[in-house]
């Protein structure tokens, strides 16, 4: 039964080591050799499209789904084969999963009763936790009498009342409308600050991931594409998938010329500092975020050292605090630039503009599908 | 616009709904009223007849009295058959509920081949004509010497009540969200605790309905009971049938009225329990 002898203990935290999941009757793994260390008290988000394996990974952490390979360790102890009720983790589900026949207070008391806590202590703890989620006046209501946002707050209270080792949340805001989602998002952030607990959050919403997390693990096709802080992932995406899934970007495809320090694209060459020599001659993609693109009318007045390319303005969309400028470059690449509201627009749709950007603000990632996806390449691009 | 639509869809809120909000129209109302009338017509005749003061069946009765109720309750024969019926009915309700709930759990939760076939087989007693079932049971029970025994009655009626229990329970379990089990496990509950604290309370109304259906089915069943009867063990419907062939006597009207009333009350129990639950 015990697998702890194989573990290499590394102090507090949750360690996912080479974990895979192949569901019965399928050949492609839902989770494929994922390794991840989650620090104590960290807010980490598993971000990815549906079917990317993020929820399966969470279910394996909680123990609802067995692991096919690899180990999960909590504080140096292998829990891969432990039953869910013994893992002492809190779980919040998308559809709340409140017990419909129990009042709010009884729902929250349930995990404490399982831990054989004395009655008086349970009552105090329940009251305290309901206060934390601002539902102290709803203790005697049935879940069906609450709104979706309130129900999810009860679920949060129920999942943290017993001070579990970590709180796991599976798209907890997915069933709520915009306004409630923003509100609950702030509450979750506040709870994380106040409780100091490890939070593991699963979502497909990049906005949620960016605003809430200390770190984000981007899932794609059962694998973790990149792990990093929100700004690392946004400013320095390691793969084209990460760049495109997280925020908008303009992606220039070209060939890496490592000796000249250039990415040679059709019609222009982009200066690229710190290119890995190993990338030489392979396909690469230069990724630039919209707010990093400067627009100049006509031939333009480009600061020295900046990359530049000419493009046609395809559309200008007013989004309140900024204008979104659609661009088409000479090689057919489409992209967009952001122009803060109040600044004059350099062109109208159909006109030519010069687009420039600081090479420090661009990321070079290997072109997908090329024969160049070795780990050293990924590291170089992310560095 | 699309974003709003998608969040609304994601929230699972009902969108536009077809139909008016004014309720049903006159055409439908009269059809419903007519159907209701046809359904309660026999009862509407029998119950007044049972309060007749005359020696024969009269509708409407010329004089009113409780003499046939008195006759019913003071007759040892009637009282014994009533007791037999209630005893068998309760035993049938218990066995059919236990077996039916177990079967429904198996059909709902275990994934195995031939589930559909088993489900259909269990529904067979509903489809096969009652007389065929009765003759078959009679033949087999003769060999097993179960005719005229309580075990025989209970076994036969349990088989016939099972489809009701399984149907009610299947519906009840289909509406059961198994995420609740997962949630309970994550909160530290063992499977046994989860079953008794979460599953049982939530499926209890279904179990109660199944129990009541099984009881009423056994109470009403006459064809099989006619075959299995001996002078020692006769259910109320059998006694009613015998009494009507041998002696024409309005006691049967009193017995019928009592049965209709009792059955109705019993069938209302689950509805009442459910309503109480939803309005705490």
Model description:
The complex is a heterodimer of chains A (about 375) and B (about 280). Chain A is of the alpha+beta class. Chain A folds into 2 domains: about 220 residues, Rossmann fold (3-Layer(aba) Sandwich), CATH 3.40.50.300; about 120 residues, Nucleic acid-binding proteins (OB fold (Dihydrolipoamide Acetyltransferase, E2P)), CATH 2.40.50. Chain A contains 9 helices and 20 strands. A 6-stranded mixed beta sheet of chain A has the order 6-7-8-3-9-10, with helices on both faces. In chain A, strands 13-12-11-14-20 form a 5-stranded antiparallel beta sheet. In chain A, a hairpin with a 2-residue loop joins strand 4 and strand 5. In chain A, helix 2 packs across helix 3 and helix 3 crosses helix 4. The two termini of chain A are about 40 Å apart. With about 280 residues, chain B is mostly helical. Chain B has 2 domains: about 50 residues; about 210 residues, MetI-like fold. Chain B is about 75% helix and about 0% strand. Chain B contains 12 helices and no strands. In chain B, helix 2 packs across helix 12. The longest helix of chain B has about 35 residues. The N terminus of chain B is likely disordered. Classes of the chains: A alpha+beta (about 375), B mainly alpha (about 280). Chains A and B meet through helix 2 and helix 4 of A and helix 1, helix 8 and helix 9 of B.
């Amino acid at each position: 039964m015990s697998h702890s002898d194989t573990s290499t203990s590394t102090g507090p935290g949750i360690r996912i080591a080479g974990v895979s999941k192949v569901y019965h009757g399928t050949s492609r793994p839902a989770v494929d050799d994922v390794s991840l260390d989650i620090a104590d008290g960290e807010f980490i988000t598993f971000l990815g499209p549906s079917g990317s394996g993020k929820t399966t990974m969470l279910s394996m952490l909680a123990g609802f789904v067995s692991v096919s390979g690899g180990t999960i360790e909590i504080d140096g102890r292998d829990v891969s084969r432990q039953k869910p009720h013994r893992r002492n983790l809190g779980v919040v589900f998308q559809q709340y999963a409140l017990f419909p026949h129990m009042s709010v207070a009884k729902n929250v008391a349930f995990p404490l009763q399982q831990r054989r806590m004395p009655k008086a202590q349970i009552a105090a703890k329940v009251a305290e936790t309901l206060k934390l989620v601002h539902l102290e006046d709803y203790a005697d209501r049935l879940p069906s009498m609450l709104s979706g946002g309130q129900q999810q707050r009860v679920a949060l209270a129920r999942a943290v009342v017993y001070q579990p080792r970590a709180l796991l949340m599976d798209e907890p805001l997915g069933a709520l409308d915009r306004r409630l989602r923003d509100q609950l998002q702030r509450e979750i952030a506040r709870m994380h600050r106040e409780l100091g607990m490890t939070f593991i959050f699963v979502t497909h919403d990049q906005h949620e991931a960016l605003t809430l997390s200390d770190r984000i693990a981007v899932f794609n096709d059962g694998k973790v594409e990149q792990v990093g802080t929100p700004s690392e992932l946004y400013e320095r995406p390691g793969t084209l998938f990460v760049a495109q899934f997280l925020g908008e970007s303009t992606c220039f495809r070209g060939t890496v010329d490592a000796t000249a320090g250039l990415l040679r694209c059709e019609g222009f060459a982009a200066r690229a500092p710190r290119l890995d020599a190993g990338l030489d001659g392979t396909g690469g993609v230069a990724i630039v975020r919209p707010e990093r693109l400067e627009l100049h009318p006509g031939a333009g007045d480009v600061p020295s050292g900046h990359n530049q390319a000419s493009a046609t303005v395809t559309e200008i969309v007013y989004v309140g605090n900024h204008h979104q400028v659609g661009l088409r470059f000479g090689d057919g690449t489409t992209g967009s630039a952001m122009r803060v509201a109040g600044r004059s627009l350099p062109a109208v749709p159909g006109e030519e503009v010069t687009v420039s950007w600081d090479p420090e603000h661009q990321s070079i990632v290997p072109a997908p599908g090329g024969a160049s996806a070795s780990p050293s390449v990924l590291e170089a691009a992310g560095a | 616009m699309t974003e709003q639509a998608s969040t609304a869809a994601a929230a699972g809120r009902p969108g536009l709904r077809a139909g008016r909000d004014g309720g049903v129209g006159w055409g439908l109302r009269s059809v419903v009223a007519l159907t209701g009338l046809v359904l309660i017509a026999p009862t509407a005749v029998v119950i007044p007849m049972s309060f007749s003061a005359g020696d024969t069946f009269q509708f409407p009765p010329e004089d009113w009295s409780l003499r046939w109720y008195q006759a019913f309750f003071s007759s040892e024969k009637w009282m014994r058959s009533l007791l037999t019926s209630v005893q068998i009915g309760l035993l049938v309700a218990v066995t059919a509920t236990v077996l039916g709930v177990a079967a429904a759990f198996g059909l709902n939760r275990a994934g195995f081949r031939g589930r559909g076939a088993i489900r259909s087989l269990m529904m067979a007693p509903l489809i096969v004509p009652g007389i065929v079932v009765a003759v078959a049971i009679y033949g087999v029970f003769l060999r097993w010497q179960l005719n005229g025994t309580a075990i025989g009655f209970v076994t036969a009626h349990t088989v016939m009540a099972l489809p009701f229990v399984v149907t009610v329970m299947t519906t009840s379990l289909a509406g059961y969200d198994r995420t609740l089990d997962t949630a309970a496990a994550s909160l530290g509950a063992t499977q046994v605790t989860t079953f008794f604290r979460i599953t049982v309370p939530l499926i209890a109304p279904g179990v109660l309905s199944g129990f009541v259906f099984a009881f009423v089915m056994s109470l009403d069943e006459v064809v099989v009971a006619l075959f299995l009867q001996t002078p020692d063990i006769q259910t109320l419907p059998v006694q009613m049938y015998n009494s009507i062939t041998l002696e024409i006597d309005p006691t049967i009207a009193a017995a019928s009225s009592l049965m209709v009333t009792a059955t109705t009350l019993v069938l209302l129990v689950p509805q009442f329990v459910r309503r109480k639950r939803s309005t705490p």
